[in-house]
Amino acid sequence: MPEPASSGVAGAAALKAIGGVAVGGAMLAEIVVMLMTPPRSKREWAVGLISTVVTGVGGGAMAVEYFKLHEWVQSITGLMALGGLIFGCGLPGWAIVRWVFNFIEKNRDAGIDQIAHDVKEIL
Fold first, then answer.
1. Counting Cβ atoms within 10 Å, is residue 49 exposed (0-12), middle (13-18) or buried (19+)?
2. Long-range contacts of 35-39 (CB under 8 A, 24+ apart)
3. First to last CA, the chain
4. Which among 24, 22, 29, 46 is positioned nearest to 93, based on CA atoms?
5. Is 66 exposed, middle or buried (0-12, 13-18, 19+ CB in 10 A)?
6. With bands split at pLDDT 50, 70 and 90, how would you rate the model's confidence at 119?
7. Burial 73-84 (b: 16+ CB within 10 A, else e)
8. How many angstroms from the chain centroid is the CA of residue 61?
9. 65, 31, 29, 50: which is closest to 101 by C-alpha?
């Protein structure tokens, strides 16, 4: 039977590796997105950074749960694949947030009925 201290240290190391992969994949997605669609202001840069990282980590976690990829955590190759998954999930985050904010800015003075009509036309 392993000692509790040694298994606790191993668990902490594994958790750090998983967190590093998640943040690493999300940050790479952020770099790619910012290079492809540069932000127009510091505020937009901050929103892009936050939305891409959250979309990458959250979307990656949802994909891991949906496709039951938990066992990939047990190998280095699997962790790298999860980093790629998180990277892929982070890419659309900035675009979606930018589209929503552009729509809001364009319809700033419109009433709720006009906005509902516009959304209905789009969908």
1. middle
2. 37/94, 37/95, 37/98
3. 59
4. 29
5. exposed
6. confident
7. eeeeeebeebbe
8. 9
9. 50
User: Which of helix, strand or coil describes residue 75?
Assistant: coil
Question: Half-sphere exposure (CA, 13 Å, Cβ side) for 72?
Answer: 20
95 pLDDT band, cuts 50/70/90, is confident
With contact defined as beta carbons under 8 Å apart, do 64 and 70 qualify? Answer: yes
Is residue 60 within 8 A of residue 25, CB to CB? The reply is yes
Residue type, 81: A
Q: How buried is 8 (Cβ within 10 angstroms: 0-12 exposed, 13-18 middle, 19+ buried)?
A: exposed
How far is CA 75 from its chain centroid?
22
Task: Tell me if 21 sits within 8 A of 79, measured CB to CB.
Answer: yes
pLDDT of residue 62: 94
Q: What one-letter code names the amino acid at 4?
A: P
pTM over 0.85: no
